[in-house]
Amino acid sequence: MTNDARLNAVMSRDKQADGKFVYGVKTTGIYCRPSCPARNPKPENIRFFELPDIAEVEGFRACRRCRPDLVKIADPSLSLTRQICQLIQQHIKEQTGEKLALGWLASETGYSEDHLSRSFKKILGISPMEYYDNYRTIAFKANVKAGESISEASYGAGFGSASRLYEKAHARFGMTPASYAKGGEGAEIAYAFAECFLGLMLVAGTRHGVCAIYFGNDEEALVTELNLEFPRAEIAADIGLLANWTKAIVEFLQESSAALPEIPLDMYGTAFQRRVWQALLQIGPGKTRTYRELAEDLGAPKSVRAVGRACATNPVSLIVPCHRVIGTDGKLHGYRWGLERKEALRKWEGAL
Predict the structure, then answer these.
(1) Segment 5-40, tens digit of pLDDT
(2) Looking at residue 198, which CATH number applies to its domain?
(3) Which of 36, 66, 85, 322 is catalytic?
(4) What is the pTM for the complete model shown?
(5) Is the domain of 39 the same as that of 91?
(6) Does 85 participate in catalysis according to the annotation?
(7) What pLDDT sits at residue 179?
(8) CATH code for position 53
(9) Is residue 218 part of a domain?
(10) Helix (H, G, I), strand (E, B) or coil at 188
(11) Are 237 and 188 in contact (CB under 8 A)?
(12) Which pLDDT tens digit goes with each residue over 223-236?
């Protein structure tokens, strides 16, 4: 079902489309079934999801009027995926303290581990265990915001103990759980500016690596955007290591080097976003992939829009080359810093 068909179903409140997808409204944070009697949202504020569980992982809550979370799923493969999601959520909510095993999911669903993993990944683009890890992280954050201690929040989120939460903490949060619990206090971000053929460039980083590369025309506007993206961090102009990283990026742009500078990155994202960003790093200079091809490369052909969102939310433009991805029609589609810059980068790399 194409997104145009989904939009038509939403606007006409088509009951035949219930169970085939749900849609979230960005301005309200609520997701609904296609036939929801509520006032139709603006098309630009709509996001489509294969399953209610995916919408909830993305931070949307079910509409109390149309109860999309109770609709029977029409597609058998989607039904299995939803069953797995619900089993994972149930396991976390029961707070057994034991880590979930793929074998347990297989025995509960009656499918082999291999079939279960392949089916799940085909729909969501991530494995059941990656979904489990993501859901635990989301649950931990919700528990902390509710006022629980680190120990209480970690146990309630299915980590068993705080020590398990701290394992790979940097990959989950870009900071320690304790720092996250304090609203990001202690996370220090420095920034520096440089001029390049793309215009004004802002490079920002933590002690671990570069966390943002922005392009624009106004220093104040770029710093404002940095503060909006990292509202709880301590942000200040750089006086140290960041200057070296910025210099390496500028030299890369000036010298037309085919090799990206070896700069450490400090990026936070979901498991799927990280997979997309890793795939972007595999696209060579002067080469392109379409969003659809990238989704197929990831083994998630139905996740074209999710791939597009991951590219759009890539905080480290240029180093993680989302500008090398184009539409299926061969045209440039969307770039956070403007299509003119995307085209300039592609032309520059094409001369390498």
Answers:
(1) 999 999 999 999 998 899 999 888 899 999 999 999
(2) 3.30.160.70
(3) 322
(4) 0.51
(5) no
(6) no
(7) 47
(8) 3.40.10.10
(9) yes
(10) strand
(11) no
(12) 998 887 777 778 88
